[in-house]
C-alpha cells in the first residue's frame, strides 16, 4: 500500500460543518491537505480492467489444476501488483485471440495499463509483465478443416 499526496489547484474549500458562512482557505502545501492511500490490490484490479478494455483480451476461468478451464473473453484477466513508493510493478496473466502478433499485442496491453494506472492512481507503472497463458484460435472460415 502506498500513500500519495496529490496536487490540487483549488484555493478554497466548500462550506461544511467547520466552515460556517462560506469558504475557508485551503493550505497550499499538498501534505497539509491530506493523503491518498492506494492499496496494491486496487492497483491490480485497475490493471486487470485496463487490459480487459482492449479487444480480444480475456482470462481463463473454471477448472481445477488446469482441467476443465475455459478461455473466457467475458472475464477480466488476473493481475498482481506490488508498490514501492510511487512506483508499481504489475504482472498480468492474459489470454488473447489468435492469430495476432503477440509482441505487438503485449506492448499494446502494457502501454494501455501503464496509462490507466498513472491516470487513475498517480502511480508510475515502472514494470508491467504480460504473461500470455493461452491463445484462442479464430473460427475456421471456408470448408478447409470442416467436417463434411
TrEMBL record:
Q: Where is the composition biased (Polar residues)?
A: 1-12
In this chain, the stretch annotated as Disordered covers 1-32
Task: List the biased-composition ranges (Low complexity).
Answer: 13-26
InterPro entries membership: Asp23
**Protein family according to the UniProt entry:** Belongs to the asp23 family.
**Name listed for the protein in its UniProt record:** Asp23/Gls24 family envelope stress response protein
Amino acid at each position: 500500500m502506498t500513500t500519495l499526496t496529490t496536487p490540487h489547484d483549488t484555493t478554497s474549500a466548500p462550506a461544511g460543518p467547520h466552515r460556517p458562512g462560506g469558504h475557508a482557505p485551503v493550505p497550499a502545501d499538498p501534505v497539509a491537505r491530506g493523503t491518498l492511500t492506494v492499496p496494491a490490490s486496487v492497483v491490480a484490479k485497475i490493471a486487470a480492467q485496463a487490459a480487459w478494455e482492449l479487444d480480444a483480451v480475456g482470462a481463463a476461468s473454471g477448472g481445477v489444476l488446469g482441467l476443465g478451464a475455459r478461455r473466457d473473453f467475458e472475464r477480466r484477466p488476473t493481475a498482481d501488483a506490488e508498490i514501492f513508493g510511487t512506483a508499481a510493478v504489475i504482472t498480468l496473466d492474459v489470454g488473447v485471440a489468435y492469430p495476432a502478433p503477440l509482441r505487438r499485442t503485449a506492448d499494446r496491453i502494457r502501454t494501455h495499463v501503464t496509462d490507466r494506472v498513472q491516470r487513475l492512481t498517480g502511480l508510475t507503472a515502472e514494470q508491467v509483465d504480460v504473461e500470455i497463458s493461452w491463445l484462442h484460435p479464430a473460427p475456421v472460415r471456408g470448408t478447409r478443416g470442416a467436417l463434411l
